[in-house]
Design a protein that fits this description.
This protein has one domain. The protein is 64% helix and 0% strand. The protein starts with a helix and ends with a helix.
Length: 87
């Protein structure tokens, strides 16, 4: 259960970190915006208001691609931390 709550926390905090500098307000909470992503990715505020990150500056032309890589690293860090906690 703790791992699941940690995963939800990592998802929300990573999403907030990738969109923090925009002036767009979430229509509901960050969870409302995340719920809109699967059906309407191109129209979601998350897709339209991503902050440039280091990967964009190093040649990743697409901010969505950069966000996916950041998300993959966040997920890997979560997996490592949960595995280490179970030892």
């Amino acid at each position: 259960m703790t791992g699941g709550l940690a995963a939800l926390s990592v998802l929300a905090s990573t999403t907030a970190a990738l969109t923090w500098s925009t002036e767009n307000r979430y229509r509901q909470t960050i969870w409302g915006e995340l719920a809109r992503v699967p059906g309407r990715w191109q129209d979601s505020k998350l897709a339209l208001s991503q902050t440039k990150n280091a990967l964009v500056f190093h040649g990743a032309n697409d901010r969505i691609f950069g966000a996916l890589i950041v998300g993959a690293f966040a997920a890997a860090a979560l997996v490592v931390s949960v595995a280490a906690a179970r030892r």
